[in-house]
């Protein structure tokens, strides 16, 4: 899997999303040790030398007082995985001191608070940092298309809160709250449309699928007592 295009293939994409590709992400090794930084663009670009660069990321799951999970559908403007359904918020800590901070996953949690406001308009006062529960990390790699790939050390964060939303349409096409049964239906519908010629595909991000298949339902059963869910310091390597 490689790109023969020696130019950075950003022509034709959304101007704001191109700008965000210049953010500097935290490069890590497979033990999650910080080994430097690079642009978001270079971290996700498929070249003849690299299928992206391994970088730190996070996935937030917000549950409301009815124990429903907040999902988003990524905007058409997104460069990787446009129009895909995924968990509440997925992004990256940036390479500056406040978000590099590894003590109690504070850097990742600060980044999550920043991006929840940027994408969903959830203001900082709605999500105190102590209310963010870190659970585990997954290491995965998945191409979006022939140009772009995700190669991430993904921190999984849970929040139980009722929040007020102000959606950024450049980031999110749609959103919904779902019960476990409704999410199961969404996954089944995605599977059905993937093999049905001519049907409109329901797309689900690969990291969300991995988390759903391996962890999410067990966590969901205990969401009323979120801080009782055990932290798992294992890095779950899901690269096949």
From TrEMBL:
Pfam families: NUDIX. Keywords: Isomerase, Isoprene biosynthesis, Lipid biosynthesis, Lipid metabolism, Magnesium, Metal-binding, Steroid biosynthesis. Pathway: Isoprenoid biosynthesis; dimethylallyl diphosphate biosynthesis; dimethylallyl diphosphate from isopentenyl diphosphate: step 1/1. SUPFAM superfamilies: Nudix. InterPro entries: IsopentenylPP_isomerase_typ1, NUDIX_hydrolase-like_dom_sf, NUDIX_hydrolase_dom. It catalyses: isopentenyl diphosphate = dimethylallyl diphosphate. Its cofactor is Mg(2+). It comes from the Eukaryota. It is an enzyme of class 5 (isomerase). The keyword Magnesium applies. One of its GO terms (biological process) is dimethylallyl diphosphate biosynthetic process. The keyword Metal-binding applies. CDD domains: NUDIX_IPP_Isomerase. Its EC number is 5.3.3.2. GO terms for cellular component: cytoplasm. Belongs to the IPP isomerase type 1 family. NCBIfam families: IPP_isom_1 (TIGR02150). This is isopentenyl-diphosphate Delta-isomerase. It comes from Smittium simulii.
């Amino acid at each position: 899997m490689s790109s023969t295009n020696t130019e950075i293939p950003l022509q034709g994409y959304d101007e704001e999303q191109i700008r965000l590709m210049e953010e500097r992400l935290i490069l890590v090794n497979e033990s999650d040790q910080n080994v430097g930084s690079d642009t978001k663009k270079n971290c996700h670009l498929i070249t003849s030398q690299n299928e992206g660069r391994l970088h730190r990321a996070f996935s937030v799951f917000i549950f409301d007082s009815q124990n429903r999970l907040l999902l988003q559908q990524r905007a058409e403007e997104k460069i990787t995985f446009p129009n895909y359904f995924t968990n509440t918020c997925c992004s990256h800590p940036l390479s500056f001191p406040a978000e590099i901070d590894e003590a109690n996953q504070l850097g990742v949690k600060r980044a999550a608070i920043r991006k929840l406001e940027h994408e969903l308009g959830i203001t900082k006062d709605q999500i105190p940092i102590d209310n963010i529960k870190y659970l585990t990390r997954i290491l995965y790699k998945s191409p979006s298309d022939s140009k772009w790939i995700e190669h991430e050390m993904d921190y999984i964060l849970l929040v139980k809160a009722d929040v007020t939303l102000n959606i950024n349409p450049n980031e999110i096409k749609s959103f919904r709250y779902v019960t476990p049964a409704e999410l199961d239906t969404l996954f089944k519908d995605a599977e059905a449309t993937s093999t049905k010629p001519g049907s409109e595909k329901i797309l689900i991000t690969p990291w969300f699928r991995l988390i759903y298949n391996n962890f999410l339902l067990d966590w969901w059963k205990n969401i009323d007592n979120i801080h009782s869910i055990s932290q798992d310091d294992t890095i779950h390597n899901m690269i096949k």
